[in-house]
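Hi support team,

I'm opening this ticket because the web form for multi-chain structure prediction keeps timing out on my end. I have pasted the exact lines I submitted so you can reproduce it. The total is 876 residues across two entries, so I didn't expect it to be a heavy job. Is there a limit I'm missing, or should I split the entries? Thanks in advance, R.K.
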Amino acid sequence: MKDKISIVGAGLVGSLLAVILKQKGFEVQIFEKRKDPRKSVLTEGRSINLALSHRGIRPLKLAGVYETIAPYLIPMNGRMMHDQAGELTFQPYGKEGQFINSVSRAQLNELLVVSAEKAGVEVYFDHKCSDIDFESNSISFENRENIASDLIIGTDGAFSAIRKKLQFTDRFNFSQYYIEHGYKELAVEPLNDNFRLAPNYLHIWPRGNFMLIALPNNDKTFTCTLFFPFEGDPSFSSLKTKDEVDDFFSKYFKDAQELIPDLTDQFFYNPTSSLVTTKCEPWHKNRSILLGDAAHAIVPFYGQGMNSGFEDVRLFVEMAENMNWEWDKILPSYSSQRKKDADAISELALLNFIEMRDHVADPDFLRRKKLESQIQERYPKEWIPLYSMVTFSDIPYSEALRLGKIQKKVMDEVLTLEESEVNFEQIIERFNALKKGD
Amino acid sequence: MKDKISIVGAGLVGSLLAVILKQKGFEVQIFEKRKDPRKSVLTEGRSINLALSHRGIRPLKLAGVYETIAPYLIPMNGRMMHDQAGELTFQPYGKEGQFINSVSRAQLNELLVVSAEKAGVEVYFDHKCSDIDFESNSISFENRENIASDLIIGTDGAFSAIRKKLQFTDRFNFSQYYIEHGYKELAVEPLNDNFRLAPNYLHIWPRGNFMLIALPNNDKTFTCTLFFPFEGDPSFSSLKTKDEVDDFFSKYFKDAQELIPDLTDQFFYNPTSSLVTTKCEPWHKNRSILLGDAAHAIVPFYGQGMNSGFEDVRLFVEMAENMNWEWDKILPSYSSQRKKDADAISELALLNFIEMRDHVADPDFLRRKKLESQIQERYPKEWIPLYSMVTFSDIPYSEALRLGKIQKKVMDEVLTLEESEVNFEQIIERFNALKKGD
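Hello R.K., no limit was hit. The queue was backed up. Here is the completed structure from your submission:
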């Protein structure tokens, strides 16, 4: 069991995967096109903080690196919603004690790369993959020697070089779809060395077709992100002057505006980035396979991009171990089994954008959430709300999506009733009947 | 009005477009990566004959080249269906006198290139586009000088180099989707210098999940094409020996097998090709635009690949003329108006595969067709069957698709009735009511 495994991309998924495969006894090397982030400045324009939850934590524990990472996490217990008048409403994410964790992408990535190196993985920065030969399992790099391997794993993100190469092979299905919204990050500095908003929440300013969110960082700053259409009114295109930006924030995000004295400067200095969903199939060819964003890049609205990538790592390694590391059987088997779950979280992430920006402030939505938590209290094993299935469980995404649709159907029916008519036993019976029907 | 226009791709669409733009007074040049087909052997593996119909003929007439092409066309009046016992059933394509035309891709392409040269277009073969700069409107070629233009038009097919370059620009939506079937061409030679099947039909051997078709060529051969799954049983994968191929054809295509003495040799010698649908948006960037397959490659089952590409040419030039050749306005306007029709013919082509291979032999389908032609006889302006709207009219594809879905709904209702209960006036009233409802 001394197969040589080459991983392309030293991002979150590639680094974590390297740690685990090295621990399993393989010879593992990672090739990363960027320079070593420990020796250079960070790249701009990528989401700075992420929300780590159950599906991401489990493989971190499996790799034995969770303890190293835990000190850098900031728990977020739920959504803190800001209405236009500045009024706050709290909405827990799950049951008492359930939370998600704000974490800096850059810090987490660095911790994982260090863990990989400590585990004995060779990490080569400044190695840009220029070509790959799927027949000989060989990777070419700009100005470097070619590398042959027993297994090549592409964890090189939404714009994967390995996937790009696969795209031009016969019968490779592929799509890239950009939503009509982009995003812009805005930094909220600390005040008197303290957070300027309550830190243990994901703050949301839902405004229908657009929204602002804020996540805490462990240097006591917040990163605000405006999700906003590229075109139309209002949109990134329609806000052309500092006065227009000022007026826009005064109208929609008055309380946030007050936290960012240099808001208009940041607005015009910081980049506007786009949001893509990519799908492809098959994820493998011969002895090469894609994992994480390279296989299925999703929009960030369910906080599951990194978590689904880490879950890929766990499921891939578990399946490989069960199949006795026979890559020629594992690769097609993994691809075909995991694909439906990647498609499901992709759909869930797009749907959750509409929920976050539009529905969360809706009285009907709040009644629905309240009723759902009452059902869950009475039937904790039978009714797990969709958000909890996705965020706090290992239920396959495709099953969560299926059950979520049934829950929605049942709740639509329940919401036509008066409060006094609601019967929880009937609700759970109806749910179980529909659940079996499939 | 002396803008310099560069067209990339001297295929059917590019050559026809060049003729018309040259006639409008522009300086037009075409760059083609292949060698001049008049000086070299033909490329293999592409569909040899195509079905030219109304939407393709109209722009050929506009360009004044139809008379040159007409002698090379073979009319096909309808489908000639071959069942497993060799029994034949004829199904007309439209009304009396309506037909589609079998034409050789290679011959038509050569005629159009010659027409372009005669019109004064400069045609450069052996010019492979290696890069394009959308800001400076400049094309780079392998081992050639760069070319700057006022307008660049990519008519370089389903695997367009221009589109590939667009794919890696921000916010470009793109998908490529391969169906599970491939195709293989098989040649039927003449017998005693005559056609071996009746020439004025498109012959179909519908067999459920797969089918064989045959189109006449003007050298009295037929080109048979087997559309067949890549995997499963039976499939291209499952037929491994000459005996297996023989047995398969004996069982399903006995009468066709008898026309091809060297069938098994051809089966293993000729390539198996895949079938892709591509979609993208937007089709333009700055002063560059995609037309034809480069913008919207479709499967061949509606015989509309070339026809939709030629219609692109007509609509693009008509719009450009109406907008006084102001490219900066024309390009976004054309893209946004034509896109829905490209999506519609793409969907129709996929649906028609199921109809051709599976439904055409169905008694229910035949009754539906017969009833429809009776409705059309009585209400020729109000009820045009879907196939006729697509093949013999200029009705936008998206409108044809919409009306076709309404027709299907009405016919589904009618087919539950006894023959004696059918009332044509009621049918047309129901159709008109549903039509307005949208």
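A quick check on our side: The longest strand of chain B covers residues 173-188. Let us know if the file doesn't open in your viewer.
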